[in-house]
Design brief:
Elements (H helix, E strand, L loop, with lengths): L7 H37 L8 H13 L3 H42 L10 H21 L7 H11 L5 H20 L2 H23 L4 E8 L2 H12 L4 E6 L6 E9 L4 H11 L4 E7 L15
Antiparallel strand pairs: 1-3, 1-4, 2-3
Helix pairs in contact: 1-3, 1-4, 2-3, 2-6, 3-5, 4-7, 5-6, 6-7, 8-9
């Protein structure tokens, strides 16, 4: 029989969970916005190049008419929001709007009063990409965005989930980089924009996927059970056995799959070859590994 009267403690637990999630969202939004604004204002603005995305367009307009970067970015977001609203959904849109407001605060009210880097444009491009990428990754990790082409990025990601966030960002930003090269009438501006965006995409993938990444060993051997036991004895990692048939020889073999950390892959390979010197071992990157011994699976908050 259903209990009609929940205890006060049970009633407050969901509310407390929502408050913790909101607090975590705000912390990530603030830290991500600070890093993003640092990349834009401290490094990119004074170096005469445009990074990709709507922020790059806002930088170009700032150079032309001194429009505030954050407010201009908000204004440019309106048609993009209308185009991608049905795909990204209302919840993502509301979270992103909160992030955009926080980002605008740092872009227009805080960082204009901080000193800008005026050294090498190449270093400015690299560090702009690093800081912007780290900031965007923190925001993405909480299921939000800074608006602009982020909405298009998440739209493409939903339609083509096999693309990584960094790859999608790189593809979409190329058009703005080319526009920046035309605007500044300087091939260096195009190259610096490309360097910035490439560094940004790398950092996004490293921050978002690096912590949960690992190695996957794909092993073909005559004695799969013995190889699996050797792997377990050496690394305490489990393995999966699949019966396989050689297409050319017709001989029966075992296919052994083992996910492990980067520091353990050498031990896995040695353990397998100690059992079967002729074993065929393929080692691949695993961008994310969820499960026991790796990143615990969890639902997006």
């Amino acid at each position: 029989m259903r209990n009609e009267h929940q205890s006060p403690q049970n009633q407050t637990e969901p509310h407390a969970g929502r408050l913790r999630a909101l607090a975590a969202d705000l912390v990530y939004d603030a830290l991500g916005s600070i890093l993003f604004a640092l990349g834009v204002y401290t490094f990119a603005k004074s170096a005469d190049f445009a990074p990709g995305g709507v922020t790059g367009l806002a930088l170009l307009l700032n150079h032309l008419w001194r429009w505030p970067i954050g407010t201009t970015t908000l204004a440019l977001n309106i048609p993009i929001i209308l185009l991608s609203y049905r795909v990204v959904g209302r919840k993502f849109l509301f979270k992103s709007f909160r992030t955009m407001v926080i980002s605008t605060f740092f872009l227009d009210l805080v960082f204009p009063h901080t000193p800008a880097y005026t050294g090498s444009p190449l270093l400015a491009a690299v560090f702009s990409g690093v800081f912007m990428g780290a900031g965007l990754a923190l925001v993405y990790m909480r299921g939000s965005s800074t608006g602009g082409t982020d909405f298009l990025i998440f739209t493409v990601k939903k339609l083509r989930p096999h693309f990584s966030m960094g790859q999608v960002t790189l593809l979409i930003d190329l058009s703005v980089i080319l526009l920046g090269g035309i605007f500044f009438r300087n091939i260096d501006a195009l190259l610096y924009g490309a360097i910035c965006t490439y560094a940004q995409s790398l950092v996004i993938d490293k921050v978002m996927y690096g912590a949960g990444s690992g190695k996957l060993a794909i092993i073909i051997t005559k004695d799969g059970p013995a190889a699996a036991r050797a792997i377990d004895a050496e690394t305490s990692r489990g393995a999966t056995l699949v019966r396989a048939i050689g297409a050319y020889s017709g001989a029966e073999r075992h296919l052994v799959l083992c996910a492990c950390s980067k520091s353990e892959i050498f031990k896995v390979r040695n353990a397998v070859h100690s059992i079967d010197e002729s074993a065929f071992v393929m080692i691949t990157e695993a961008s994310e590994v969820f499960g026991e011994g790796f990143t615990p699976p969890h639902e997006e908050t």
